[in-house]
Amino acid sequence: MTPTRLTILVLYYSRHGATRKLAEFIAQGIEGVPGCDARLRTVPAVSTVTEATEPEVPNSGAPYVELQDLDECAGIALGSPTRFGNMAAPLKYFLDGTSSQWLNGSLSGKPACVFTSTGSLHGGQESTLLSMMLPLLHHGMLVLGLPYAHPALMTTSTGGSPYGATHWSGVNGNQPISDDTRQLAIALGRRLAETASKLRSA
Question: What is the pTM of this model?
Answer without folding.
Answer: 0.93
